[in-house]
Amino acid sequence: MDRELGNPGAVMAAPPPPLRLGPVDAGEMLTLQRAAYVPEARAHENIDLPPLLETFEQTKAALGDPACFAWGVRESGRLVASVRIVVDGGAGLVGRLIVAPDRQGHGLGSSLLLAAEAAMPSSVTVFRLFTGERSAGPLRMYRKLGYVETHRTREEHYELVHFEKPRVRTGGPVR
């Protein structure tokens, strides 16, 4: 069942609830991923970013991996945001946090990431991610959400900024 907020003309107080995504969502996720990463490729002067090179088969395989937890937000049936978190021991490796270009700046990425973190298995004690040094919006968002820069790695024309955040438990049930 699609979960949508009632009146499409109404101001949304909160984004729609995130839904689990799987291999059946691979095509739509890949389309969203490409749209979201083109501005990043331009900013970093690199059209060979891995998210832009990922194939449908690779996306489908990632979404079918039991260690990969994928979440998305749909508005009127359209996938407008998604994130993947891969469990690696006690770490949740956050990747491919994407929001449709026309929906960026509305809190979808932040709310989706926080919901995905809260829904991860209890074995996850820390979250790790990285982004390009020229990704101003994501850099601000990650810091605002409690991620701390741990180090940088050099790419051809820029650096990747690596972040880490300990898991915060809220005491409520994980769904």
From TrEMBL:
* Residue ranges occupied by any N-acetyltransferase domain in the UniProt entry: 17-168
- Give a Pfam family name: Acetyltransf_1
Q: Superkingdom of this entry's organism?
A: Bacteria
Checking InterPro entries in the record gives: Acyl_CoA_acyltransferase (IPR016181), GNAT_dom (IPR000182)
Q: What is this protein called?
A: GCN5 family acetyltransferase
Q: Which organism is it from?
A: Amycolatopsis oliviviridis
Q: What is the lineage of its organism?
A: Bacteria, Bacillati, Actinomycetota, Actinomycetes, Pseudonocardiales
